[in-house]
Amino acid sequence: MNVVENLQQETADVLGRLIAFNTVNPPGNERPAAEFLRDYLADAGLKTELVGEHEERPNLVATLGDPDDGGPVLGYLGHTDTVLADPGAWTGDPWSGELRDGHVWGRGAIDMKSQVAAEAVAAAHLARSGWRPARGALRVFAVVDEETGGRLGAQWLTEQRPDLARCDYLLNEGAGTVMPYAGRRLYGVCCAEKGTFRFKLVARGRAGHASVPALADNALLKLVPALERLAAADLPFDLTDETRGLIRGLGEDPAEPEAALRSIEATEPRIAALVKAGMQVTVAPTMIAASEKINVIPGQAVLHVDGRAPAGLEPDAVKVRLEALVDGVEMEWMETVVGNRSPVESPLMDAIGAWVAEQDPGAEAVPTVLPAFTDSRWWRHAFPDCVAYGFFPQRHQSLYDTWPLIHGADERIDVRDLGFAAEFFTHLPKVLLR
User: Fold this and answer.
1) Residue 1: its pLDDT value, please?
2) Which of 3, 72, 307, 344 would staple 197 via disulfide (CB 3.0–4.6 Å)?
């Protein structure tokens, strides 16, 4: 086998081993997976450390080179925990990690043990081959607890051990799967993540027996006008460097966002939905609670709403817009997390774009915005000069194939994409750390 085939096979093997560790969070129980990765990378020649707040949930930091010699530090980030899997909904064992029909199957095959495996295999391959950074270091971070917010993982590591976490460039999840669009092949590079603005609406009335509605004051009905306003909300566009870059990458003019969005929607509605979500504040009513018995009219009703806002918008400005939508209903803020971002232009972006063009002739790298958030936010907060992108290249399994499998049944990844990604992660340090 050639080098690429070797990388593909080794990454598939490592991924299969990682999937076999049931790391559903909660409770996580990531230690066995972390110890496996520690031993694998230490055997290859990397310096490894397991650190964390809880003994059974350590974070792995593996280092190749000298992070203190004044050279740049390139970080490869991934999380080892996963969401729940219902075995009854799968066609096989969610924790088998089996290679079947040209894919590795199991919970975490996409989110995101595949990237952890590809990053680890690339680092091990470089170390075993005798390569070392001319200056600086390559670091592999395999953290815990991402699926429930990252408090024990990325947050703990960046806040409690900045000496181990510091890096100048960071690659994480969030983009990289090819997006076929109008005959073109686009690879997204996630440069920003939207902020989270969650709140609840409370309506109060007077409880009563459901058989005589007129003698009560139904609190649930008082939420209906607010619910309708939220459903109809279409807030103004707030374009950022990242969304402008994506619109330009799609061949449209960001100076005319409404016309651009119509054109994108006519070409590919799925891409348009992602573009629009990145361009504006969004609100999504997700939970409602009222009476606990069908024959009792509720005296109180509560609606939970998930709001997201583009990076760069000030929290007060976001709150003013959202409060205007629900005027007249009691409102309580539950969570406020400002969006985070990294510069669109950087040596890391240049390196990604050049590699994409070389490996997939005619393809292009374009900036994207993630409507949700990842562990990148902790690095951007702790190290403001760190350029952190989401990028895990997949060439054979497109975004349209991959997105429905994330957190879903029969999660799987094309084994060819494992080799494709591992090749990229092997190549990049030779460009940035020379």
Assistant:
1) 67
2) 307
